[in-house]
Design goal:
Cytochrome p450; four-stranded mixed sheet; three-stranded antiparallel sheet; 23 helices; 53% helix; 8% strand; globular; binds protoporphyrin IX containing FE
Length: 561
């Protein structure tokens, strides 16, 4: 090659690189200028938050971080910038809120009820079930599903809660004297309970697939969580090229395998019964009359005070009980509605709702109960008080828990509430703003198009509402401390029209399950709370594992033991 040819080749390859680079830089600059002019950016940039880079925004802050490091990062920013923090994920505006007044504006609204676009990663798994759906579909399904967790239906579940709690106690006995992860046991038992209660699948027709299901759910949550904070995984085209996609396919095979089997069994049973002229058994009649006999109708629980200001449909459902309706458990109602056309729901929609309830109904309570057991292992004085309360109700008897007993478990209830305060199983709630909204902090105007993220963990640790917010203290829920507290300073179940439909189910189940475990075992833990490594997955977990030990419980008051 001659020198002239050399120079020509060099000039040609330089142009080949130079011009596309200029074009790309101009494109990015124009995009940046356009972003700066838009209303979303103008209003977004008035909010406090870390310095954002052109085009990337703050996306690189999460780069290379492990899930457990993200909790610390989020809390540090909240510390630095206050109760309103803005972040840019590229051109996407994310606003973190943690002041109860601001939280109330969003959660108590009938306008800002659409879930953030980030929930779309759940779609291959949950479809458009209640957790994700919006508009008329959400409204009509919520109206149908919320009453299936009516208090009268829940009372009929108490025997099943007892039986399964006893089963898990038997299984846990094999761990005596060892350090073990109690979450494994709580996952298994909460899946079994859901299958038997909400889904109406009897023990005889269950197999071991419940545990595989629970493990698959945990792994699926991890993939979805990674898609939230690793921005390149947000693009389906890139995600499909990664190993996560293949893993997700396998996990969904296990998860949907179980839910499809559950629906198929139930449907076959319904059709069989129908051909024999047998109607699906309802629930209300027997329960309403037994409740009146014991005079329990007016007994108020801590939940009645704490959640009074939530203004959701759960209390309305209970207080406006006509008493004569035939009540059906969740899946019975879905199947019957689809078969006889009383409520408009297709087979595909039933599947979406079954997947949603199976997930929301087990993983949350598995985390909730595991946190309580670990905390009691640390706070022996609190555990002794819980045990004494249980002893005063049951003495040394081994009898099962009744619904009436649960109404007397006042201290255990405070312990559960305090644990849900410090370690809320659902650590964030995210909404998409379809309209501009003014919040009370500095009268900020949050623009339509932004994603609002409510950091429950932060809301629950506000020193204005909790004297020692980082200290585990069940007395935070003494009547004198709850009476005048801002309702939205405690939102483990969210609040307003999109609050958790399973709240009452969860609290009743937790009482029966925990009471049974604590009547049989003393929890011990040598891990202190400041050693917990929290992982703000979809569900809050300890990435160091829920490690505890158990000792056999002597059935005598704690000061005699
Ligand atoms: C300790 C246990 C539980 C906690 C802490 C909890 C918490 C929550 C929270 C915070 C939400 C709102 C989520 C959001 O807006 O992104 C929610 C929604 C929901 N939960 Fe729960 N939950 C629990 C147990 C249950 C149970 C046992 C069930 C069912 C059996 C259930 C079913 C649902 C459903 C279907 C929704 C969606 C409601 C809607 O959007 O209309 N949850 N839960």
């Amino acid at each position: 090659m001659t020198v002239v040819e050399d120079v020509q080749t060099y000039q040609f390859s330089t142009r080949l690189i130079f011009y596309p680079l200029v074009l790309l830089a101009t494109g990015l600059w124009l995009l940046y200028r356009w972003q700066q002019q838009s209303k979303l950016h103008k209003l977004g940039n008035k909010l406090p938050g870390p310095l954002a880079l052109p085009v990337f925004g703050n996306a690189l802050l999460a780069f290379g971080k492990k899930p457990e490091e993200l909790v610390r990062l989020a809390l540090d920013y909240a510390e630095q910038y206050g109760t309103v923090v803005r972040g840019w994920l590229g051109s996407k505006l994310i606003i973190f809120l943690s002041d109860p007044d601001d939280v109330e504006v969003i959660l108590n609204s009938n306008v800002h009820i659409d879930k953030a676009t980030e929930y779309k990663y759940f779609k291959p798994w949950l479809g458009e079930g209640l957790l994700i759906s919006s508009g008329e579909k959400w409204r009509s399904h919520r109206k149908m599903i919320a009453p299936t967790f009516h208090i009268n239906i829940l009372k009929s579940f108490v025997d099943t809660f007892n039986q399964n709690s006893k089963n898990v106690v038997e299984k846990m006995k094999t761990e005596m004297g060892k350090v073990f992860d109690v979450h494994d046991y709580m996952s298994g038992v909460t899946v079994d309970i859901l299958l038997e209660t909400a889904m109406g699948i009897t023990k005889e027709t269950q197999d071991e697939s419940g545990f595989d299901y629970a493990v698959a759910v945990m792994k699926m949550c991890d993939i979805i969580h990674q898609r939230h904070y690793k921005f390149w995984l947000r693009f389906d085209s890139i995600f499909k090229l990664t190993s996560f996609f293949e893993k997700q396919k396998k996990l969904l095979g296990i998860i949907h395998g179980l839910t499809n089997k559950v629906i198929k069994n139930k449907k076959e049973k319904y059709i069989q019964n129908k051909s024999k002229g047998i109607a699906t058994p309802g629930i209300s009649e027997t329960i309403s009359s037994s409740e009146n006999d014991t005079g329990l109708a007016n007994v108020k629980t801590l939940a009645d005070t704490v959640f009074k200001g939530y203004r959701d449909d759960l209390d309305f459902n209970d207080e406006n009980d006509v008493g004569e309706k035939k009540r059906l458990a969740f899946l019975d109602l879905m199947i019957e509605s689809a078969q006889n056309g009383t409520n408009k729901i297709t087979d595909f929609e039933i599947k979406e709702e079954v997947d949603t309830i199976m997930f929301e109904g087990h993983d949350t309570t598995a985390a909730g109960s595991s946190f309580v057991l670990c905390l009691l292992g640390i706070h022996q004085d609190v555990q002794a008080r819980v045990y004494d309360e249980l002893y005063s109700i049951f003495g040394d008897s081994d009898r099962p828990v009744t619904f009436e007993d649960t109404l007397q478990m006042k201290y255990l209830e405070r312990v559960i509430f305090e644990s849900l305060r410090m370690y809320p199983p659902v650590p964030i709630i995210a909404r998409k703003l379809n309209r501009d909204v003014k919040i009370s902090t500095n009268n900020y105007l949050l623009p339509a198009g932004a994603t609002v993220v409510i950091g429950t963990l932060k809301v629950h640790r506000n020193p204005k509402y909790y004297k020692n917010p980082d200290k585990f203290d069940p007395d935070n829920f003494l009547p004198e401390n709850t009476q005048n507290r801002h309702y939205y300073s405690y939102i483990p179940f969210s609040a307003g029209p999109r609050s958790c439909v399973g709240r009452k189910y969860a609290l009743l189940k937790l009482k029966v399950l925990l009471a049974t475990i604590l009547r049989n075992f003393k929890m011990v833990s040598d891990v202190t709370e400041d050693q917990y490594v929290l992982q703000a997955d979809i569900i809050l977990k300890r990435s160091d594992g829920f490690r505890v030990q158990i000792e056999p419980r002597k059935r005598v008051p704690s000061n005699v033991a």
